[in-house]
Amino acid sequence: MNKTVFSVQNLTKIYDMGEVQVHALRGVDMELYEGEMVVLLGPSGSGKSTLLNILGGLDTATDGIVSYRGKELTRATDQELTEYRRYHVGFVFQFYNLIPSLTAWENVAVVTEIADHPMAPEKALAMVDLSDRKDHFPSQLSGGEQQRVAIARAISKNPEVLLCDEPTGALDFKTGILVLEALDRVNRELGTATVIITHNADIAAMADRVISLRNGIIADVNVNEKKKPPSELRW
Predict the structure, then answer these.
(1) Residue 66 and residue 11: Cα distance in Å, rounded?
(2) What is the CATH number of the domain that holds 66?
(3) If you write DSSP's letter for every residue of 23-91 in order, what string do you get?
(4) CA angle 161-104-79, nearest 5°?
(5) Tens-of-pLDDT digits for all 235 residues of the chain?
(6) At 220, is the secondary structure helix, strand, or coil?
(7) Is this structure's pTM higher than 0.85?
(8) Can you tell me the distance from the alpha carbon of 76 to that of 234, in angstroms, rounded to the nearest whole number?
């Protein structure tokens, strides 16, 4: 068994919305291992994004424990969480958040300047098959190409964990497959522990494990004995 990257115990998150309390997570227990690809599957409002944001240090828990390689994130200071996000975690969101005035290469290079052990921007772009588009600005790239630049940016700091929130949500099927192939390649070749949030059950077939969430709890966990390559997915 590979080493544990994340350990989550009795994780609870409650949002106070005026006089109403929203229970986003209700006692979640899970672990994530080195080199593993996990899909968090569930409908909107099931708690997927809240869980991902807490794993990534973008949000804090109301109760419970989240540990990263034995260090409790739930006890970390703001400064410690900032350093954790900067050096250990790569993020990919549904919308690409590229800087419009910078080329693809420059968008990636911005991150390498603040990383401890960065990958060369050109290598990161090659990982997502965009070497020939490195001098193009976001406005000159398709949606799928912009998302792959966002992946290159996320992996350029050589993170141990890659957290992806609906990375194909704004893309058509054909383009989405190219993005999933890029994520699959990163997971296989770099050994980056990868979590992909989706409401699309067909994407789950490419994961090592599928964790299904409903109403803030883990409803089911399935192991794929034989993973499908992204090129064989259909939806």
Answers:
(1) 7
(2) 3.40.50.300
(3) EEEEEEEEEEETT-EEEEE--TTSSHHHHHHHHTTSS--SEEEEEETTEEGGG--HHHHHHHHHHHEEE
(4) 40
(5) 589 999 999 999 999 988 899 999 999 999 999 999 999 999 999 999 999 999 999 999 999 999 999 999 998 999 999 999 999 999 999 888 899 999 999 999 999 888 888 999 999 999 999 999 999 999 999 999 999 999 999 999 999 999 999 999 888 899 999 999 999 999 999 999 999 999 889 999 999 999 999 999 999 999 999 999 999 998 7
(6) strand
(7) yes
(8) 41
Beta bridge partners, 43, equal none
* Token pair belonging to 66: 């989240």
Closest CA to 128 of 109, 110, 145, 113: 145
User: In sequence order, what are the residues at sequence separation of 6 or more whose Cβ sits closer than 8 angstroms to the Cβ of residue 20?
Assistant: none
- Domain count for the chain, please give it: 1
Phi and psi at residue 223, in whole multiples of 5°?
-105, 130
